[in-house]
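Notes from the 1:1 (GR / supervisor)

We went over the backlog. Supervisor wanted to see one worked example end to end before approving the batch request, so GR pasted a single chain during the call. The sequence is below; no edits were made to it. Supervisor asked that the structure be written out right there so they could see what the output format looks like.
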Amino acid sequence: MREVMTDIMASKKMASKKMKNDFRPVTKIFLAHPGGHGEPFCGPGMIKLIKYIKETGNVRKACEDMQVSYSKGWKLLRTLDGCLQYQVVARQQGGKGGGKAHLTEEGEKFLENHEAFEAACCEAVNKLFDQHYPGDYGHADDRLP
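Structure output shown during the call:
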């Protein structure tokens, strides 16, 4: 019985040790404007809002899905437009069925570029992680986005 308990305790220690080494980097990209004192104007939340607008065609629906007020959503979009110096989302005033929104051509290009940049950053971070944390810390295909 003592041997069984020792084996169980050894297994728990091994599992515990393995869990401590099972970590991965998480990369979040923020864009900041030099004139804004380093304050970010675009981060994961903004990108998510833009994607939701693209999917739904509706700023109000996108804001609801993100649990952000409609006025705050538009404030964030105006800030983004001001920093980029072009309009990202165009809207058509609503009538009976409500307004519609879509990404402008520049907005589509911005989102495409941002997603490519983010993917390249994650790839680079994962390579650096492998260099600086060699061993059994997880595998590249197990990494978080």
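Supervisor's comment: Confidence is low (pLDDT under 50) at residues 8-12, 14-19.
Batch request approved.
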